[in-house]
Amino acid sequence: MDIEELIFPGGAFVTPPPFDDASPGDSYLQSREGATFKVLRHILINSSQYFERLYKDLSPTGPGDLPKLLIEEDAQTLHALLILLYPVHADATKIDTKHT
Which residue numbers delimit the BTB domain (predicted)? Predict the structure, then answer.
């Protein structure tokens, strides 16, 4: 099974950890087709002046809601960017599978 089958079952994008809803995060990034990525702002702000500018005036949309940034990229491109910016301990582009 390759990574595309795991992230795009049936052709739909499924947000993987560390960006899914169960992951820690204080805001969301939303791709142009509506996929959401839960992220930690300080990681993105410290990694990129682009995100620093985007987050400058961002606030929650309602009580208890996390702020959401709409990004004009598709989910696959946004995921690839986050993998590059996020400090992960394992190679997030590979999934450990056993081959028989």
Answer: 25-94
